[in-house]
Amino acid sequence: MEIIHQTPMMKQYFSIKADHPDAFLFYRLGDFYELFFEDAQIVAKELELTLTSKNGKNAEHPIPMCGVPHHSAAIYIEQLIEKGFNVAICEQMEDPKATKGLVKREVIQVITPGTYMAALGDKENRYLVAVTNHPLGYGVARGDVTTGESWLTTLPTREAVRREMEGLLPNEVLVSDERLKDVLAPLGIPLSVQTDRIDSDLAVDARDEAQRDAFALLYAYLTRTQKRSLDHLQPAVAYEVEQHMQLDANTARNLELFRSARSGERKGSLLALLDETTTAMGGRLLKRWLEQPLYTEGAIEARLDAVENLLDDFMLRDQLREQLKYVYDIERLVAKVGYGTANARDLVQLRDTLSRIPDVRALLQAVTASRLRQIDAELDSFEELAELLHRALVDAPPISTKEGGMIREGYSSELDELLEAKANGKTWIANLEQQERLATGIKSLKIGYNRVFGYYLEVTKANAKLLEEGRYERKQTLTNAERYVTPELKEKEALILGAEEKSCTLEYDLFVALRDEVKRETKPLQRLARSLSELDVLLSLAIVAEKRDYVRPTTAKHVQIDRGRHPVIETVLGRGEYVANDLTLDDSRRMLLITGPNMSGKSTYMRQFALIAIMHQIGSFVPAEAAELPLFDRIFTRIGAADDLVSGQSTFMVEMTETRQAVTEATEHSLILLDEIGRGTSTYDGMALAQAIVEYIAATIGAKTLFSTHYHELTVLEQTISTLENVHVRAVERDGRVVFLHEVHPGKADKSYGIHVAELADLPADLIDRARSILEHLEAEPAPDEAKRETRPTSETDVAQLSLFEKSDSLTDELLALDLLAMNPIEAMQALYALQQAAKKG
Ligand code: ADP
Ligand code: MG
């Protein structure tokens, strides 16, 4: 750096900045945080702040600078964090007024996307994940500093790590080596390579060294960045991926578990539908339940018992919910207390929450389900703490902890005396005003206060001459008035201000002592938070079950769903509009091949089943009249239909990669949904693959499989694969038009309604007529499975003829298969373009 920058302050800046190359350094300078050099340039741009120069714009080597006021810095910091940046907060460690020369400064915290203390009441967890590459496997430690929770697991491959991260979408990831970084970089999550490790007792539950190693990486990072007590961190919970139903990110997206595919919003997702939670903690827990549905019958039944118990008792449900409305986000409150950032309002929220517990417990006396009985037993109302908080804090304290107004009268006699002295002083001053008006005869005389001069008597210029000489001491002259003081007034002022300062300091000390008192209860309060969240989630599931008319599913060996519904679509269409359907699967009938025209409801039927299975395994009631279901270890989905074009990412390679995942990783306990596989390539190519996939699953996996297809030719597989059966979604023709019934029936669909749909979409009549005649022509040809699958071309001419035939056939097929109603103009253009390209190729 040029010599010109080497003022003592800039030297200090450089040495601090050198320790924090990956963070914007918020350098405290009086009432501002200032940023310099590149930090300033980037931040000014990101936050639209004015970029200035520390040494003047015209300096030979201007130092770029921008700043934010310290009292409103939080909002700027949050914006930077949400954009994925890190911020190092550098404070003045001594009082500048009391210091000669350069003030000592230190970074007191580095805030990163994964460690940001998100707002109370947020229904999303904030995950910081550490992944280490250990000989035993990939250790994964996932923590949420805002709640103090963490989890550990070990994954076998980098691919599994990528999938896990894709599913979790953490706020920040730490990895132990560059190769992991390369694998995860495409996810676009803030990511860094870290090497420091600190062992911690919190990892007692770790199952192996890989997990311990990952936690050590996480813990070292937290220690280094947060630079404060981490007492609120709870022991990490180890889980094995096998304990849960595994859902990868792709499946979660296809089934719209957390976000709607169309809008990308939470609204329209299964989560949003199930979320009737009242507390933010419950909202976060519900999401975690959905991220990791159970795979153990006992745990599922325990939840279902609890939901049923709450469902059966309307009064109980209603009253519990009413109580939970007053339960605040104590999980995060406790974390703030641990961090030393909780204010009096936070403690009042805690107090109000605690005061509800006795009522909650009283209500729970009526429950019988064992999980609820257990929750009741775990609830502690912390009477002493609640009473202390009640005695100590006023009902509506200010946000600031430094300006008094927090402590209730009667809690501290010392404080009460100070406040009384202050009040007396103020009364005395108020009386003085009256007194002096009488004495001087000046009715407009008044007493005022400002920060610079303190208390003063004010008299208008016109009246000033009425004052007797020497009555007051002149202090300040304004345009229209004179301001005076008296020795007595100054004396009272000193008393008031002294009392005020002392009382504020005292209040702050009392408050901090109180906060420390709460901090001592960190662990039990976190247990309380856990129990309340679970109660909230169970209640939410009961409320949804009641509101949506769901039924309790039974765990069985087979699948028998009577009149099942798609939970989300039925709410969009209205219950009366939605056509319910049955589904039966067992060991002799493991696969369904679903045919039916476009828009008839094939995809919906498949997804509906997967959603019902997931709901069962989180312990929820399900949208059906009756449901018997086995436990699924994983759900795989491959949606190859037009549905996927919406997201613009359907390439045939993606389709095949996802299929590979399903056929290599599924077990006989898995559920596989393959929706119109093979659509991304030419007809025969796609059809051959589709058939091979079905055969492979049937022969070597045995997973329960729903397979929808627009290849009617595949329906013959029913004859050769004993565990496969055809079903079709019915549509009927009325007056030359298609009417979709959305009813699923045994057997294959007998006719393609593509042309009718095209007609519905008002394609030109000539075109429709032409399509009809082509179809007739094609139907007159031998069926492709007879004609070509068996026969091998024998001569050059045969090959040429065959490929010609194939081309026109496949083009027509593709044209017919276009789901015009579901396409927007751009998609239609793309499809047309692809057809034209294919035509040119031949
Ligand atoms: P396909 O996959 O056969 O092309 P979809 O499953 O995408 O058809 O369904 C198309 C539309 O039909 C859905 O968006 C929905 O509005 C409606 N639909 C599907 N199934 C049903 C049903 N069971 N009851 C009522 N409407 C349905
Ligand atoms: Mg479909």
TrEMBL record:
InterPro entries in alphabetical order: DNA_mismatch_repair_MutS, DNA_mismatch_repair_MutS-lik_N, DNA_mismatch_repair_MutS/MSH, DNA_mismatch_repair_MutS_C, DNA_mismatch_repair_MutS_clamp, DNA_mismatch_repair_MutS_core, DNA_mismatch_repair_MutS_N, DNA_mismatch_repair_MutS_sf
Organism of origin: Exiguobacterium alkaliphilum
The UniProt record lists the keyword Secreted: no
Family: Belongs to the DNA mismatch repair MutS family.
Function: This protein is involved in the repair of mismatches in DNA. It is possible that it carries out the mismatch recognition step. This protein has a weak ATPase activity.
Pfam families named among the record's database cross-references: MutS_I, MutS_III, MutS_IV, MutS_V
PANTHER family found in the cross-reference section: DNA MISMATCH REPAIR PROTEIN MSH1, MITOCHONDRIAL, DNA MISMATCH REPAIR PROTEIN MUTS FAMILY MEMBER
Protein name according to UniProt: DNA mismatch repair protein MutS
